[in-house]
Please model this.
Amino acid sequence: MSTDEPLLPDFKALFENAPCGLVVTSEDGTILTSNSTFSNWIGVSASEMRGRRFQGLLPMGGRIFHQTHWAPLMQMQGSVAEVKLDLIHRDGHIVTMLLNGVRRNHPSGAFYELALFGTTERDRYERELLAARKHAEELLSEKTATEVALRQTKAELSLAYEQSQRRALFAEQMVAIASHDLKNPLTAIKMATDFLAREERSAKETKLLEHISQSSDRAQRMIADLLDLARVRVGQGIGIIRRPIDLHKIVSQTLNELHMAFPRAVLRHQSAGEGALELDADRMQQMIGNLVANSVAYGDLSQPITIRSILEDGVALVTVHNSGPEIPRAAIGTLFEPMTRNSERDEGVRSVGLGLFIVREIAKAHGGEVTVASNSSDGTMFQVSIPTSGHSLR
Amino acid sequence: MGLEHRNNVKVEGSGPATLIFSHGFGCDQTMWGYLYRHFTSRFRVVMYDLVGAGQSDLSAYDRAKYSSLTGYAQDLNEVIEQYAIGPVIIVGHSVSAMIGALADRQVPNRIAAHVMVGPSPCYIDSEDYVGGFKLADIHSLLDTLDSNYLGWSSTMAPVIMGAPGQPALSEELTNSFCRTEPEIARQFARVTFMSDNRMDVVGLMTPTLILQSSEDLIAPLAVGEYLHAALPASSLCIVDNVGHCPHMSAPSACSEAMDTFLSPWAGQHVD
Model:
């Protein structure tokens, strides 16, 4: 061994300048001795510290934690490790430290030997971690809350859907029952009227019987219209049965019948083009009838009403034109909605305000559409376009 | 679910009356280790862990039920119902002293006496009352709890469980004592330190021994005196001790005072 070998520091120097704070207390926390490293860290000299309680160096939260957690641990277990503590520096700022401690028994009690390590930087990082965890937990609980709300909304929606399904079914049944039950007495009235009209009648009686007949026809149309409305409203749409038809022929047949219904109006038919197509003939008749009735109700009857049937490539067009006043711009938007009327005119040809609505629905049922153009000079023209089989309008 | 599992109930000793030991905030029933053996020859001794603490069943922790001390008091009455034989004396430390008082209010005349160790009916100061703490102190405690529970989950023991230089320490002890899941610790800290049970103790006629440390940060002398005045059938015993756990740091002084108080219910001493 060389004599140049430096001497190891003595125990006193080791204690004083150890790279950690060292404190010895009695069981109640009274500081018996402490090293200068600890003094430097908290700005209190060893002599000032002696006799004070170690827990007196902690803020209130730490003192409670000491009483409820690590003091009992020192009693029961004889040691603690890695307790994180805030200590109050003489100038008031907080110094964060990790504490290891052991209890060393002596004949009249025990010493608590404490080693403390500064952990300010790590503490900053840990606080960030803690904040991040809290943030993550908040987000999670927000997410959970949102999911719960979503589930609830879904449940409410599905309940509302069920209710509306039940209502729709009920409405459908109501309409079906009502129309069926109304149709029968109307048919009886109509038959009885026809039967009575066959015999010799006075002029007055004949007129009254005509009224009865017309009124029951009208009531039947209304029931049919209401049935259509109900079908559309419960989401089924108007039912159609397509069969091969000759469009021009259907239109001219319809007009022949309408001549009798509207004797005061002049109806003109023009046709153009040729082609095979499949449509519901009864519905086409109903549609043309509604459009003509509309022209009769609102048009200028001193001028003819012109009905055109046109077959073009991929599309069948039916237009109904009348002269007369322009449809007010504000009314155009709701023209095809049910129960809307342009005026209070009623010449006995009116239904319950469903005519144009049913026109639109019949067009739709055929995959087509109805449009209207109206101004004061040209009058009003409705145009129904229906794609012929294999074609689509859009 | 059995109480034995839920509250980790342990029964020792025998006698004509039952002593039920209920631990305080921060630890579990092992804190009675220095004290309870003194009584097993004359009493039936029951110890248990509050739900959320020690080796209780953590899955039984219901945030709503334990959002006030009432939930813990219900549990205590269930433990009494199932385990007590003869007169029942509750030995409650700290917050458990108030849990005992609430249990007494819930089921009158079932509890024969209370031994309250370091009790406080209210920790926070108000206009005409000194509890020893301000609201900010409680928040400071919650912060300290947070920073000490950082990074461990319910399946890990807390960092303060380490026992440097004592590898021989029994695993059971290191793994249960003071173990609390962080979220539970937070709520229990809040429930404990925010509770105000002054109206529950006033006029409680059950005989009560208050074991008051001469110096206790958590339950100062003034609080012990307040409680003594509020409980008509109480006696106040000041134990010469610094700290909140006289049953650990001054067990013989505690058992001596308890012997005198408990003598009407004690069985014959059997050695």
Remarks:
- Residues 126-233 of chain A form a domain with the Methane Monooxygenase Hydroxylase; Chain G, domain 1 fold (CATH 1.20.58).
